[in-house]
Design goal:
alpha/beta; 32% helix; 6-stranded mixed beta sheet; 262 residues; 6 helices
Length: 262
């Protein structure tokens, strides 16, 4: 989908991991005509419960906007992606193609092709597959097997819809938001652990008690407070994804499910 402003607009994004969940700040400036100074940047709007992935600064009257829920295995949050360029996805997986083909390139700014030569001029080329490398044909490479994105001389790792955050977002902003997301996941898991202990204590068969050791381990892996090395954060994200799969398996047969997601 598109979001359109009445005049040319510049959006700036900043992120921090201070306090419990960190926050993201969005600065908005506008100008009524070419060559005029940007007006109205001022103090940006700070948000604590949203995760917006974008380049640090984007400009234009119209921007592309896309949302995907992140579930690990319970819903952590909706992830928001905003971009101002045209992208060309080369040989993406079927689920990625389905996400954008239903919108159409005019609504999403994303073209789906099988070879780099079919991309429209000046589009950002995103190549999917381990056989590609950064060069004239690919500006971003996504290895869906190792869940790794090569971009701007950096390697970043993802799980699920975080992939789009790595593609459309600034790398530093991605890393900051990833830490914030894991902080939130840790907090939600703690609530489910407490709920499980209450339910199992009142249940004749200790219903949901089998989830508690996995939730404890989940909470430990989601703890990234003070983490300076992103390699450690990426490692914990991978472990968190594995724990999420195990939690989903353990909860599926329970009559006292802690979370239910469509």
């Amino acid at each position: 989908m598109n979001i359109t402003f009445p005049s040319e607009t510049k959006l700036g994004f900043r992120c921090n991991t201070e306090d419990n969940y960190g926050s993201e700040t969005i600065d908005v400036a506008s100008r009524s005509g070419g060559g005029k100074d940007w007006q109205g940047a001022g103090v940006g709007a700070s948000i604590q419960n949203k995760y917006v992935f974008a380049e640090k600064t984007i400009e234009g009257k119209s921007f592309y906007l896309f949302l995907k829920p992140l579930k690990l295995p319970f819903k952590v949050s909706d992830l928001i992606y905003i971009w101002d360029k045209n992208y060309c996805f080369i040989s993406p997986p079927q689920d990625v193609e389905e996400d954008f083909s239903s919108l159409g390139i005019n609504a999403s700014g994303v073209q789906i092709v099988s070879v780099p030569g079919a991309c429209k001029s000046k589009s950002v080329k995103v190549c999917f597959g381990a056989g590609y490398s950064i060069g004239d044909s690919c500006e971003i490479v996504v290895d869906v097997t190792s869940k790794k994105i090569q971009k701007n001389g950096r390697n970043i790792y993802y799980e699920g819809p975080l992939m789009y955050g790595g593609i459309f977002g600034d790398v530093d902003l991605y890393d900051c938001n990833l830490k914030r997301i894991m902080m939130r996941a840790e907090s939600i898991a703690q609530l489910y652990k407490d709920t499980s202990e209450m339910i199992s204590s009142k249940s004749s068969n200790g219903c949901s008690s089998a989830l508690q050791p996995e939730l404890v381990s989940y909470i430990e892996n989601a703890d990234v407070k003070g983490a300076e090395d992103m390699r450690e954060v990426y490692r914990k994200l991978n472990l968190l994804s594995l724990k999420a799969t195990e939690l989903e398996r353990l909860q599926k047969p329970l009559t006292c499910a802690l979370w239910r997601e469509s």
